[in-house]
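[stage:ingest] chain + small molecule (magnesium ion)
[stage:ingest] validated
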Amino acid sequence: MVNEELIRAQLKHVLDVTDYRFLGTRYQGKVRDSYTQGAVRYLITSDRLSCFDVVVSTIPFKGEVLNRIALDWFERSKHIVPNHIIGAPDPNVMVVRECKILPVEIVVRGYLAGSGWRDYAAGRPISGVTLPPGLKMSQKLPEVLLTPSIKAPSGEHDQPISEAEIVQRGLVTNELWQRVREIAFALFELGTRRAEQNGLILVDTKYELGLVDGELILADEIHTLDCSRYWVAQSYAENFERGTPPEMLDKEPVRQWLLSQGYKGEGPIPNFSDERRSQIARHYIASAERILGATLTLHPGPVGDRVEQALRAYSR
Ligand SMILES: Nc1ncnc2c1ncn2[C@@H]1O[C@H](COP(=O)(O)OP(=O)(O)O)[C@@H](O)[C@H]1O
Ligand SMILES: [Mg+2]
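[stage:predict] done
[stage:export] tokens:
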């Protein structure tokens, strides 16, 4: 059980923005801050919560929890594809090989949800794939789908793109793309199997692959709650038959709350009370424990100070 007081006390210690110029050139993503120094990138997972591509709040322990899921999955998937990990000097940090990220995001789907469902419901193909009629929201797909999207410049939403167009436009060579799709399906299969063992469904996810010295490697994050949807397996069938939404481990409930406040990514952000932030933290921690199939020992206290110390020691 997640410790209530630990979370409350952590509200004031969350990691929002970092500024560690001693690490190199800084780049701020929605959730992670990167610093690059030649061939090395320091990826720091903050406690920022992003919804509709906007940072809406900070959540105690979120960064640590997500980074730990990614590290665990990089370790478990390295027989399928080599990855960017060099080291992990702190629970919130990954030191990685800087690579040239392919300009497409590799989205894999086992179920009809999110933007895949929205495209299908509007009668559009999903990244060039046309599905049979009559499928319902949250339905298991007849087969696992690869539905890539093209990375949009910061501030804009990614756009779906078909596999054929990726090759035609020369974004990725045909040979490389064949390797990418093999890796993507193998990773998703592995993710699905482990999720099953932990009573979960890996609904869909996004991989980022990149090139370093001509070698294709898995970069970014893998199977975390920020890049994947997970549902609870036990209640899935019942909900599906009833037409009610599945029990979700991802941030869909936060999105729903924001929508109920009239927020869709523009205008003033609704206020997240301490109670709400604590509740979201509990949800993230409990979800991560289910994904990992283990109890997490958290690292309370001022995250920024701890991360900075670890990185000063590491980069010396
Ligand atoms: N090994 C790597 N080499 C280069 N870039 C990477 C690597 N791993 C991850 N990245 C990039 O680092 C950034 C991570 O920060 P994130 O908060 O996810 O940003 P975004 O808002 O762009 O999703 C992403 O732009 C991702 O593509
Ligand atoms: Mg990202």
